[in-house]
Every structure is written in structure tokens, then in C-alpha cells.
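Weekly sync notes, structure subgroup
Attendees: PM, AL, DS (notes)

Item 1: joint prediction request from the bench team. They want all two components modeled as one assembly rather than separately. Inputs as received:
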Amino acid sequence: MEEFHINILNIAAVLLSAYMGGLLIRKIGYPAILGELLIGIILGPSMLGFLEYTESIKVLSEIGIILLMVYIGMEIDFHDLKKASWPGLLAAIGGFFVPFVLGYFTIVAYGGTPISGLFVAIAIGVTSLATKSRILIDLKLLNTRIAYVLMAGALISDTLALVIFSGITNFAETNVVSIKELLIISSKILAFFGVTIAVGSFLLPRLGTYISKSKINNSTTFFTLILIVTFGYCELAELAGMHSILGAFMAGLFLKGNLFPKNVSKELNKAFYDVSIGFMAPVFFVSAGFFVDVSVFRTDLGLLLLITGLAIVGKIVGTALFYLPSRNGWREGLTIGTGMNGRGAVEIIIAEIGLGMGIIDKTIFSILVFMAIFTTLTVPVLLSWTTNWLRKRGELVYMDQRNGVLILGVNPLSLLLAKYFAKKQPVTLIDNNLELVTQAQEQGFSCIHGNALNEDVLAESSPENIALFMGLTANGQVNLRAGELLHKSFLVPGIFVAVSEPESKIGDEVLQKSNAQILFSSSVVMDDWAHKITHHEVSESSAAIKDEIAADKWMRRSGISDNFLPVLIENDEGMMRPFHADDLLSPGEKVIMLQQVK
Amino acid sequence: MEEFHINILNIAAVLLSAYMGGLLIRKIGYPAILGELLIGIILGPSMLGFLEYTESIKVLSEIGIILLMVYIGMEIDFHDLKKASWPGLLAAIGGFFVPFVLGYFTIVAYGGTPISGLFVAIAIGVTSLATKSRILIDLKLLNTRIAYVLMAGALISDTLALVIFSGITNFAETNVVSIKELLIISSKILAFFGVTIAVGSFLLPRLGTYISKSKINNSTTFFTLILIVTFGYCELAELAGMHSILGAFMAGLFLKGNLFPKNVSKELNKAFYDVSIGFMAPVFFVSAGFFVDVSVFRTDLGLLLLITGLAIVGKIVGTALFYLPSRNGWREGLTIGTGMNGRGAVEIIIAEIGLGMGIIDKTIFSILVFMAIFTTLTVPVLLSWTTNWLRKRGELVYMDQRNGVLILGVNPLSLLLAKYFAKKQPVTLIDNNLELVTQAQEQGFSCIHGNALNEDVLAESSPENIALFMGLTANGQVNLRAGELLHKSFLVPGIFVAVSEPESKIGDEVLQKSNAQILFSSSVVMDDWAHKITHHEVSESSAAIKDEIAADKWMRRSGISDNFLPVLIENDEGMMRPFHADDLLSPGEKVIMLQQVK
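Output from the run, pasted for the record:
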């Protein structure tokens, strides 16, 4: 064995830089990848030279790209497509091909080869998927049509980009293409997709079932198997003359839900996320910054501005144009365009592959990296403008499919609230005490028996139709975690929980994670009130609202004492929502309260 | 960027080989590492040449060693030491130094350099820690004194080996040592331990607290930070002239429980386990096999047999000899010796470092690898002999500290069982329904309010004193998972659960994972009986046992009808245990049953 030392200081420094870069940029609302690229440019060989591109960084980033592509594939959920497949397809096609065509001709006009033009074209065409949901939550867009179109659009756009990319890499190495070669290449590509789809749809599910039933059923086994399948798919892609990232992407698409059983998929996903997003992918993005030549600002400023401009204008206008047949209006089209304007992981990976294969030079590579940075910078700003514009015009369309109410915990208070909601909305309760479940069912409620922290149990409640979740068990932590699950896994927009500790002790980040609102002031009150309801010491009353007023202000003004518990707000159409201190009460609404009578 | 391709096929093949090797060897009861080494020898360059030692395999194994050492450090729990620190120390010292001295003089006598002698001596001295608990469970030794001594002994022995190793690597590169150099080296080592301990005890907890309170509190952040701290510690070790694995080991010792909060430590541990044990460490062990020269069986068979023989005899006899002052008897000493005879991860890592530094040659390296394989092969065989021997002589000492009973779920049946147990043992109940908790407390039981799937809640029950857990909620999955947690995290020896599905549907592997026994025949019965107890339709009766008989056979013979529910077995000292079909009833014992009276 030859003496071999990995440069540990350099790995530590790269990881620390990635972490700090990601942290700082997230503080101002941008995705971590941006900070990682920037810190790589600043601390790497291109500027300060603190960080080195060593062998171990090379290996880690190459494997990091593969794991990242698996993760991107795993994150794609074809169910997302269903709700907005037609407008999503329009947005994706317009947002991809318009900048694609503009990018191609610009490069060729500037004297680039057709193949480098195609690389740049793809890089300009893609849309970043990973950063979407964060921004959607921040801008409170989760339940709007825009959100569904953006998710479907980004998904289709990335898949499109990767399929076209799979064709291009095959031609990259030959300049003259005969009909015969074309046939060979096409059949190779078809064979790749045929084999990976067949293995993914038929072999992996059977392997998964076999392993789940055998004694080796533990999530580490599945972790190892995921890696084996991934590297196997990568090798298949290379055998078909394509880049290994395509294999990784296909592996990601098929691994989730096929190979491994539902009960381990969450912790597996977490472990995979930690390794890729928490370790290797940041190494890749920092090291991508190493190859950026900052002098392009001096030498090729014109081309840089042109490419960035075309990327932005092409994406937004292209999306809006192709979006017209959806009949959702050109303003919504522009909004979708601003939302899809970011370039992220896939763009940087494609640019890096182009540089590695010698298809694009360092100048073009640097321009593409800066283009990714600039376009991503525009997203929160432009998207917040356009959505506010739509909101003001009353054109922000909410998806109204969700109208169900899910209540966790059967107790006197929750049954009382359920009765109110049941007037207008379907209500489901959930509890893990069989006796209480029976009790709720006897009162005519749909009630699920099971542990609400188990995703499979939650899935029984048709969570895709739930608009409002109320966690009303005595255990605040259970309420919070169930809320987090419903928010994260099933995108339930309204999460309301009763907690046993004071709000300050729970911490903002926990609430933010589940997007939860706290019900009542403290759960001591809740237990008391439940007791009072059981012993018929409570009457129900309501107060009409005359002027728009914040809920907490209203409580102070009306002198609501401890003898009252405001629980619901009813609007003029009879729709209910839970009362909480941050709400805004409007004229015509009623606050429904419990009042102690003894 | 230079063109750079990682050989993906080779990575896939190495991982697949590691997986298959580990799988096959585990089927016959040995630790995965053995199969990984063997498959590396067979499929690698030493024999068939299917697998290659590429750059990426190099990087992955080097990082794999580091992550593995962190994991080994994280697994060390100083609480394990408390119960057997004195006998454990004796066993560790004897088991380490006797083979150490024998190994050193053998190598020097065979013409090796003193420094190579020291390397071999350490490799022979170490004890494998990772494989212990599995074997202890298989041989049903978990609650014996042997188990505690083995765990404490292996822990001390590994720490000892690494501390001595940290001294040796410093001297490895200089042959002549002056007093001045000696002082410099010693102060470097002291400085390393000083700095790492100071940072670990003071800085990391503060950093952890800061992060937990901040908004960046998520487990992926902690995963990244663990890696940064790890590589930082590795760099410190290298600055002090030691090998980076020592830094990784120290990082592991301090990271757990210091840097990150309890609530994320479980999923972090899991992610870390997946990456190290499920990905990189197997790559390392397979690749360690690549450097084995199988011709040593022809060329150096004598030395191979001598070293292996000394390792086995030295370890067993050395342990037994030094164990005498513990006054636990020489037979227990020999048993401990056979249990500590395995060599595992640490030995292979040390041998590989020695080979990499050129201190030992390929022949000695190969001998050390085969020694690790042979000694590990002896453990289950010899330990099962010696423990059976002790068992037959009645000298297998059980640790009697544990005598608590923990019952999950407050209901009529569990309260009835609790009353029986409470005659002789401390009983704790646990439930997440506050009303039921109050009810149990009113009846005089210690009862914890909370979610039993939360380790922090379980920790409140002093699980280290619990000998018996009964899961009696209506939710069989909750019972099973709580049992699994108590078994895995707190080593509770007796796990009994009531389940709602038929036993066949739960599957053996789930039961094995938690080492659980199923109570009663099905939970439908349990709910019925709870109902009957509430409505006073039940009387309690008991049946005396005359001859030794299997419990299920006894049930058939006595014609126990559905009107009876055997719940407990009472021995002649009045100690209770739960009744279950696989138990063996002895003369003088009584079966306590519920009988339906209406």
C-alpha cells in the first residue's frame, strides 16, 4: 500500500466554509447553495486561495453529485403533477425552451461550437426545484394555484433538461454524426431507460418485499442497498454513453416507495439527506466555486450580462407566453415565470460536467455560475412583487379542494369544537384510546383509532383534503409533532395546536418548522375547561365583531376574563376557524366563546 | 478542471461485495466485518482480482476509518464502566498486556524492528467492542456479571490501546530518541489531550446550547457540525504528531451528549451509523483485504500460527490471571477471556496504518488480518462452551440490581398485574392519558405521565433498574416499539408485550429486534378481560405446578378454557413473572389466573 494521506485540514476547512456560507446566506433568505458557491469563489483558488482542490475533495464532490441527484430524484413526487399537470407542462415547456433557444444562438453567435451551445442552452433552461417550497411557505403561497403550477413546472422542466442532456452527452465526443451512429446512440438511450424502468418497476419492488420479509430488514441494510442500486444505475448510464448523474436520477425516481417499505422510508430519507445535503453536496458546490474565473467581470462582462439577461427575460417571458393557453391569465404566467427563474443544483452540475468534458471553457463556466447566482437572487424579490400584485388585484387563486378538519385527541373540548365545524365541513377525529374513539363514533363522528405520529395512520384521514388540523391532546409535544408531520408530509396549510408549556419555552423554530399556531393561552386552561364541559359548568356564547381588529387587541378591549374561553371565529358564511391571538377579526364575524356558569 | 472519472463500476462492485460478504457471514452468526475482510481477500487483487484499489476507494476508506472511529467513540458509554469497573479493569489490563508482551518479543525475536514489534503488540492486544452485544444477546448473557465485565473490559482495553498507539506513532518516524525529543513528544501528546478534552467539555456544550436555541436547530446542521468537529480533531491529532484516528476517537467521545441535544441524538446516531457502518467502513474492510498476501500460508505458516496462538492463549490466560484479584474465580476469568478474544475494527485499522507507514510489511499485515479472522471465529464457540460450563456449575452470576417492573398502559388488567408485582418489586406505570395516570397514582402506584416512545420519558422510570417490562396498551405497535426502545437503549432484559395482531403477522424479526415475548394469545382477549375486570365479573385463582412442564403443554393438559386467563407465574419465593406460552413451569410454582364468574 503506497503511503497515502488525505489532507484533513482542507476537508475540515471546506466543510466549515460550506457551513458558514450556507448559514449566512440563509439568514437573508436565500438557499444554502448560493452561499456555498460564493464562499468557494472567495476562499478558493480563484480569489484568496485558502481552500484547495485535493484528491479527496474531488472524490467527495463526484460522489456528492451522484447522491444529490438520487435525492433530487427521490424528492420528485408524481402526485404533485396531478393537480396542475396541464398548466405545469405549459409553464415548463415555455420556461425551458425559450431561454434554451436564446442561449444556444447567443453562444453560437459568439463563436462557440454547437455542442457548447447546447450545454449552455440546457443550463439556462433548467429551473431549481430544491428551493421552491421554502419560498412558497415564506410568501404564504402553499395553498395557491401558483404553488401547484410551480412545483409541477419545475419537476417537468428538470426532467426535460435531464432527458435532453442524456442525448447530448452521447454526441459530445463525436463531431460528425452518421445515420448509423444516430441509430446506435438512440437505441442505447432507449435501452438505458427501458432497463432502468423495468428494473425499477419490477425487480426493485420484489427485492424490497423479499428483504422486508427476511431477517435482514433494517434501515441500514436498505441504506447500503440504495447505494448499490444507485452506483449500478450510474454504471448503466455510462454503458449507454450517458453521464452517471442520469443513472443516479433514475435510481432516485424508482428507489422511493419501491425498494424500501414505508416504515423505514422516513429515517432513510433523513440519513440520505444528511449525507448528501449535510456533507457531500456542499463540498461539491464549494469546489464548483474553485473553478470560477472572477476576471470574467472585466474580460467578458458583455457576454455575462447578455446571458444573465436572456436567462431572466427568456424564462419569465417564455413561461408567461406558453402559459396563455391555460387561460389562467398573463399576470399569473409572469408570476410563475418569476418563481421559476432560479437556477440551482442541476444547472451547476451540468456546467461542471461541461467544464470537465472540455465542452465549455472556464469563461463560459464562470458566466454560468454567476448566472445561477444572479437569477436565484431575483426569485424572492420578484416573486414577492408579482404575488403581492396578484393579491392586490384579487387574482391570487386558492385551491379549494381542501376543506376537511382533522382533530387529534378525543375529549370534551374537542368534541364540542367538532360539533361546530361539522356544520359546514367534514370533520375527522383521531385518538389512540379505543374507548374514546368508540365514544366519538357513537356521537356520529368519523374517528380513526391509532397513533397520530405514525404517517400511515395520518394517511387514513385523507390528509390531502385537510385544510385545518387542531392538536388537542393533553400532550403538547404530540400535538406539535403531529402538526409538523401533517404540514411537512401532507402540506396541510392550517396547523393549530394546544401546548402544555408556555409558548416562549417551545421556541419559535419549533413552531416555524410545523408552521403552527398556538391555541388558547396555556393547556392548564384547556384541561380545566374540559373538566368544566364534562360537568356541565359551561355555556356557549358569541360576540359579534363590528370593526376590523386584531384578536389579542379585541380580547383586551372586550375585557375577556378567565371565565371566558374564545374558541372559534365564525364568518358571515358560517365557516369556522380556530380563535388564536394573531388572527385578524373582520366586521360581520362572530367570536364563539365558552363561559363558566358556576 | 482536469478530466476526472471515478470508477463507478468498481465502487458498486466493492459495496455489493461488502454487502454480500457481511450478509453471508451474519447468517452463520459472525460479525459483518469478517465477511467483508474475507470477500476483499477473495475478490480483490490478492486472489481473483475482480475488485480494484482505485483513488475513490482510497478516499472512501480513509474517511470511512475516521467516521468509524467517531462512531466507536460515540458508542462508548462511561456509565457501562460503573457496574464493573474494577473487574473490568483487571480483565482489560491482563487481556491487553499479556498478548502485547508476547507479541512484541515474538516479532523482535523474528528479526522485526522494535517499532514494528510495538505495532503488532498493540494489534494483538486489542479487543473488539462492536460485536459484543449481539453475542451476549444470543447466548442470553445480558444480565450476567460476565456481560458487564466484558463491556467494561473491552472499553478499557480499546482506550488503552489507542492511548499507547498515540505515543508510538510519534516515535515511529525517528529512530534515535533524545531526552529533548522525548519531552517535546510527550508535551505534544499532553497538549493534544488537554485541548481536545477542554474543547469537548467546555466549548462544545456551549456551542450545542447556542445552536439548540437558535433557528438553525435541525439535525442536518448537527450532522454537518459533527463532521467539522471530527475533521478538526483529526487535524489536531496530526499537528500533535499522532494519527488522525485518535482525533476522531476523541471527537466521538465528546460529541455525544455534549454538542447536540437529546431529541436529535437518536436520528443523528442513525444517520451516522448508516454512513459509517452502511457505506464507508465496509469499503475500508473490503479494501483492507486487498493487501493481504495469501501466500503467507505457504511462506510464513509458522509465524502465522505462532502469532494467532499467542493472541488466543495470551488473551485468555492473561485475562484469567489478572482477573484473579477480583475474587470472581478463575473459571469466570477464563470465560471473560474467551469473550474478549475477538479482534475487530480497531485491530484492522492499526494494522492498515502500520502497513501504510511502512512500519510493518505485507507479510506481517496479512498475518494480522488472518489473526483477526481466526480469533473472531473462536468467540461464539468458546464463549458458548465456557458460559455453559459456568451455567452447569451454577456459577453464572446474575446481576441483581435490576428488579423493577415497568408497565405501559393504565387499564384494569395492568392495575391488577401491578398489584401482584408490587408485593415484591418496585412497580412503575406509564401512560399518556393524564386522567388514567391520576387514577393509578390514587391507587398508590408510581405512575409517569408521557409518551413511552420518547426516550426521555422512559428515562424517568430509572430504566437501568427495570428487569421486566410489560406493554399493555391497546396498541400493540406502541407496546412493541416501547419494548424495543427499552431493550436497545436501556438493555432491559425482560420484554413482554400484548399485541393486537396475530403473532404470525408481526413477524419474527420484529420480536427478535426487541427480544420481546408475546403476552396472552391475542389482544381481543385482553380488551374483553379488562372489561370483565371493570364490571367485577372476574375472580382470581391459582394452580400449583407439580412437575416441570412447558407452559403451553400445561395449558393443554389442564384444559384451560376461554373462561380462564393465566396471567402470572409465582415461584416459591413469591417472585412473579408474566405467564407466556414459551415459559417452563417448575415444581413449586403457581400459575395465577383470572376466571370469568358470570
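Discussion: The mean pLDDT of chain A is 83.
Action: AL to compare against the crosslinking data before next sync.
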